[in-house]
């Protein structure tokens, strides 16, 4: 009977785990007056357990008159983009139609999601639940298509939002609801897409920060402020038609409340805001937090990197503590058991991207993304420019559905992540001691590289682009080699030394297991 009960509990836990991996991404945004150097920052923890992790450069293209662009549902699975735009989607995507192509499309980075372009526009996304009736509607434009086309065509964040909104209004939305953070180095916009042809976007104040964690958040909107608000024409009227909002109620129309109502708090929102503005003293059980807040201090890329990998260390929810963390304080061991909370940084992350735009520099030099594979707390970040001429091969090889490869960037980072978990509380110290000084050195070098490239850009654009391309390429290659060696080091230190020493479990953990079995 006990064995059957244990098997049932394991099945329940597995089903809960699988059913909740679809809504797991977290995004952050930092306005230019809230950052230490005047840049804007948007992020995306792509927390997908099925994503195609490869990273591609989609080149700029001049299109012949009369060209058409395919609209493909599910276009970001394992499709070879090495010869873009001559991509055979096969059974990995569905072509649902075509729209007229523009004369020129810009270069951008394409992975599970597309996120930054050569001309200084960047974005992220967080999937969010909406009313069932909205999910059942099926249009042409999914999140991937919307972001791809916006990056291909837009020269500003405002224009990118408008392009996505126009596409949704004309062709309809496909899929779950989405929150997007969009920036161009000057403005930051937060947009929500609810399904059908319904959407709203608001400009964030320059001195504020935002977090999105799978729940719609745009509530109080000044619909008369056309400079800072954009929305679909029927955003309010459709809700009235459906009986979801009564204009005579005396209550303001709050888009998120109407189209994606929530009744409980979001602990990731609380955690991000408590790290960026601890003076606010927010309670973690609050149902609604402000859409954005002013941070207590100006934030750096390193600050945002740290938040992106957070697992509540030092709080009552610390995932390195308690029985759920296993014998070695592993925050990834089981955050779904015993009331443990889902953190911002999880081991399911395909990658974390932190896009930083410096609008006082030429766009091709001031647009950089800090990119890393795996869980935010156990990965490294290296700078990549979307204007680069080529990427190292390790970004474009391998598949999570094929064998482990030591020449694959995602597999190497996954290797280090999982080796760290062998004895986490000790190995994470080794990881930070190895990683953090190297990352800090790169943080200090990148602004100097950008300044040098900018000085040269006026007289020799090709040479300026070569400087950033060569630096990014060589830095990434060096990180890949060092990270692979570091994974081997962890195996030797925390795996091989167990061979002749029983289970390797701490004494206190063995005693706890004995007590549970009695």
From TrEMBL:
Superkingdom in the source lineage: Bacteria
Entry EC no(s): 3.4.-.-
Catalytic activity: an L-aminoacyl-L-amino acid + H2O = 2 an L-alpha-amino acid
Keywords of this entry: Dipeptidase, Hydrolase, Protease, Signal
First and last residue of the signal peptide: 1-24
Keyword Transmembrane: no
Name of the protein in question: Dipeptidase
GO biological process, one term: proteolysis
Keyword Signal among record annotations: yes
Family statement: Belongs to the peptidase C69 family.
Protein source organism: Mesotoga prima MesG1.Ag.4.2
Leading EC class: hydrolase
A Pfam family recorded for this sequence: Peptidase_C69
A single GO molecular function term of this UniProt record: dipeptidase activity
